[in-house]
Design goal:
21 strands, binds flavin-adenine dinucleotide, 12 helices
Length: 434
C-alpha cells in the first residue's frame, strides 16, 4: 500500500515525526539506511530543557513545547527514557566563561524562557556537590535534565510499531521521482517507492538529499568526540555537568558519557566536494575560530562523489552520495583533554577506564537553527534537519509542529525562525559555535 508519507531517516527526528503523523491517522513509512538512531541520535548526551522559567517567547516556542513534551514523554509514548531532572550544572572557571554565560542566558530568555537558576560560589558549590573539586569561580545550577538517548530510540521504535508505522532498515535513499512540483516516489537503489509526500530527516545527509529537490542547505558536518567510562559509583556526576571543554552525564547503569563543552567542543570539520560550495558562508567564522577548529578531508566521500559525478557525465541519474555504516573516528588527543579536564573537577573520574570511544557527526547550519518546513518549490516535500547539536532540546516540539503542518497546514508552534526560505538569502555563519 502506498504510504501517505515517506520519512527519510530513522533518527530521533524522523522516528518521532513518524509517530506524530501516525497518531493523526497518517500511513507512514520510515526509510533508514542503517538502523534507527545509528548516527547522531543514539550517540547523543541528550541534555534537555524542562518546563519552567519565564519567557518573552510565549507558549508557542518549539523549545517550550519540547520541554513540556520531555516531561510527559514516558506517559505519552509508553516507554522508559530515564528522565533525569537533577538539573544542568555549569562550571564557570574564568572571565571568558562568565562572558559566555551572559550570552547564553540572553539566548534562552529570548527563545525558551530562561530556566530557574541559582549561581553558587565555589565554596557553596562544593558543599552542595561534594563530588566536585578543583579550581573554579562559580557553578550555575539550572533547571533542566537529560534522557537516555539509547532508551529513547528503543522506546520510539516500539511506539512506532504500535502505531502501525513501517520502519524499513538497511534502505538507502538515493533520489526522488518528481512530476512537476510533486514528489511521486523515493528511489532506494534500483527500487522506487511511491508516496503521497516525503519528509527529509536525514541528519548530516539532508543537504545532499535536498539538493536533488533544488533546495540547498549550507551544512557543515562536524565530528564531536565522545566517550563512555566503565560504571562509576552513583552520583559521580551531578545531573548534566558542563564545563568549557566537556559536557558529561551519568547513565542509570553508572557509566559516564562525555562529549564537548560550551566553549571548546574540539570540533573537527569534515570536508568533501559538497562542502566547498559553501566555503564563502563558513570561511570568516572558521578563520576567526581557527585555534579551536580543525579540518579533515573525507577521502572516502570524496572518491564516492567523484565516481557519482563521472557516472552522471556518462548519462546516469543525479543521486545523493551518502555513505552507509558511517563510523567516524575522533582524535584521541581531543578525547583525552575532555576527560582530563573533567577529572580536574570530578576526582572519581581520574584513571577511570574508557569502555567505548566514538564520535558523532553534528549537522551545523550557519545560524545554528534547524530547518523545518516545506521545501521551496515542492508541494509535498518537507525537511526537518540541521539541529546543530540541539536535536533533543528542540526535537519533540519540532516533530509535533511538522506533523501539524503536513496534516492541516496550521501548526500551533511558531515555525517562522526555522523556515527553509531563510536560507535563500545572503548568509554568514554565527561566530559563537555553541
Ligand atoms: C556526541 C553528541 C552529543 C550530543 N548532545 C546533545 C545534547 O546534549 N542535547 C541535544 O539537544 N542534542 C545533542 N546532540 C545532538 C542531537 O543528538 C541531534 O541533534 C539529534 O540526534 C539529531 O537527530 P536527527 O534525527 O536529525 O539526526 P540523526 O540521528 O543523525 O538521524 C538521521 C538518520 O538518517 C539516516 N539517513 C541519512 N541519510 C539517509 C538516506 N539517504 N537514506 C536513508 N537513511 C538515511 C541516518 O542513518 C540516520 O539514522 C548531540 C549529538 C552528539 C553527536
Amino acid at each position: 500500500m502506498t504510504p501517505d508519507v515517506a520519512v527519510v531517516g530513522g533518527g530521533l527526528i524522523g522516528l518521532l515525526t513518524a509517530c506524530e503523523l501516525a497518531e493523526r491517522g497518517v500511513r507512514v513509512l520510515v526509510l533508514e539506511k542503517d538502523d534507527v538512531g545509528f548516527e547522531q541520535s543514539a550517540r547523543s548526551v541528550a541534555a534537555v530543557n524542562l518546563p519552567g522559567g519565564s519567557s518573552a517567547a510565549g507558549p508557542d516556542s518549539i523549545l517550550r513545547i519540547s520541554a513540556d513534551e520531555w516531561a510527559g514523554f514516558e506517559e505519552r509514548w509508553g516507554c522508559g527514557i530515564d528522565l533525569n531532572q537533577e538539573g544542568w550544572h555549569i562550571l564557570v572557571a574564568d572571565e571568558e566563561d562568565e562572558r559566555w554565560l551572559k550570552i547564553d542566558r540572553a539566548l534562552w530568555e529570548e527563545t525558551a524562557g530562561y530556566p530557574d537558576s541559582e549561581l553558587l560560589d565555589a565554596r557553596a558549590a562544593r558543599e552542595r556537590f561534594p563530588q566536585l573539586d578543583g579550581s573554579f569561580r562559580a557553578l550555575e545550577v539550572r533547571h533542566g535534565g537529560h534522557v537516555d538517548a539509547v532508551r529513547v530510540m528503543q522506546g520510539l521504535r516500539v511506539a512506532a510499531d504500535r502505531l502501525g508505522v513501517e520502519v524499513r532498515r538497511d534502505t538507502l535513499v538515493t533520489g526522488f521521482e518528481r512530476h512537476g512540483g510533486l514528489v511521486t516516489a523515493v528511489r532506494a537503489g534500483e527500487s522506487s517507492i511511491s508516496c503521497g509526500a516525503v519528509v527529509i530527516a536525514a541528519g548530516v545527509w539532508s543537504s545532499q538529499l535536498c539538493d536533488l529537490l533544488d533546495f540547498h542547505i549550507p551544512m557543515q558536518r562536524v565530528r564531536a568526540p565522545a566517550a563512555e567510562t566503565v560504571p562509576l559509583p552513583p552520583g559521580a556526576i551531578p545531573g548534566f555537568l558542563r564545563g568549557s571543554t566537556f559536557g558529561a552525564r551519568q547513565n542509570r547503569n553508572g557509566t559516564v558519557r562525555v562529549t564537548g563543552g560550551y566553549r571548546y567542543s574540539a570540533m573537527l570539520h569534515d570536508l568533501s566536494f559538497h562542502d566547498l560550495r559553501d566555503l564563502r558562508v563558513w570561511a570568516p567564522a572558521l578563520w576567526k575560530n581557527r585555534k579551536d577548529v580543525s579540518f579533515r578531508v573525507d577521502t572516502g566521500l570524496l572518491a564516492a562523489e567523484l565516481a557519482c559525478g563521472w557516472a552522471r557525465l556518462r548519462g546516469g541519474n543525479h543521486r545523493a552520495v551518502v555513505p552507509r555504516d558511517y563510523h567516524p573516528s575522533a582524535r584521541p588527543r581531543d578525547r583525552r583533554k575532555q576527560l582530563q579536564d573533567l577529572a580536574r573537577f570530578v576526582p572519581v573520574l581520574r584513571g577511570a577506564r574508557i569502555l567505548r570511544a566514538f564520535a558523532g557527526v553534528i549537522d551545523l547550519t550557519p545560524d545554528l537553527l534547524p530547518v523545518i518546513g516545506r521545501i521551496p518549490g515542492a508541494e509535498n516535500a518537507y525537511v526537518s534537519s540541521g539541529f546543530s547539536g540541539h536535536g533533543y532540546i528542540y526535537g519533540p516540539g519540532a516533530c509535533r509542529a511538522l506533523a501539524d503542518l503536513i496534516v492541516d497546514g496550521n501548526p500551533r508552534a511558531d515555525l517562522t525562525p526555522f523556515r527553509p526560505t531563510r536560507l535563500e538569502g545572503k548568509l554568514s555563519m554565527r561566530e559563537q559555535i555553541f
